[in-house]
Write a structure and sequence with these properties.
globular, alpha/beta, five-stranded mixed barrel
Length: 317
Amino acid sequence: MLNMPEEKLLKGLVYKSTGSWYVLQDDDKEFWNARIKGKLKIDDDISSTNPIAVGDRVVFEVENRDTKTGTIKDVLPRRNYIVRVSPHNRNQKHIVAANLDLALVITTITEPRTSHGFIDRFLLTAEAYHIPAIIVVNKIDLLKAKHKEQLKHWEQMYGNAGYEVVPMIALEHDSVIALEKKLQGKTTLFSGHSGVGKSTLINQLVPDLNLRTHEVSDWSGKGQHTTTFAEMFDIGTGGRIIDTPGVKEFGIIDIEKEELSHYFPEMRALMSQCRFNNCLHINEPGCAVKEGVINGTVDENRYVSYVTILESLGKKW
């Protein structure tokens, strides 16, 4: 318990993290700059590169009311959080955001191309941390006939797995309004490769924000990073969105090989029918998941993603 005068302690919501300083909003909707002094004890006992994440609720001590500065003393219990492998140390985890209602992965089929593997890693991480997810497919105005076939396949494949696929054009008003309704009253994580139009979409949802956007490089077909730190913004429908740096890959951490298929909903629905309780759905006889791939209940691309991710966990079967 913190023994300090009550008027010096306030609760705040973390809106931005820069690694050393945090932007907090208190219960009166006023913003503060705060930092950590010394070692912060986290009840969750999560070993991560960042002890505090955007979306966290914290207790902070007022240092100066005039300059609106303070010191973070405690992190309140998290309802949930989502993690990935730290971009700086592959043996450590990085908390992407906390206390989420929804996770949005923004993808493109062309200019640049988003791989199934990236989408599936994001979705299974959201599943592991009990966060509903939606797949947004941006830049559908650029799709040629072969790309439209792929979009159709994505809608069927991910739809059968229980996910909503939202095709859109980030610069089209009606597309943005339709998405905004899905975000109403929620705290939503936005993630995706650089160049998929994430910043463009956020600029539409939060007028006058003017996040920097870059065109996709002609020579590489890849986007350029425009977001350095995670940051949360209020949207007009009463919700909040958390913008994250564009990521090349979504590294899985803290998931065991025996758990992996639990986070593929279409596989989870069949697992109880497997002959063996510890079935990894690879070489075992009487596997309902492999049978599902044969009869089309489980999409072959999703199964390939599963096997690839299983191998990447460094486990042998």
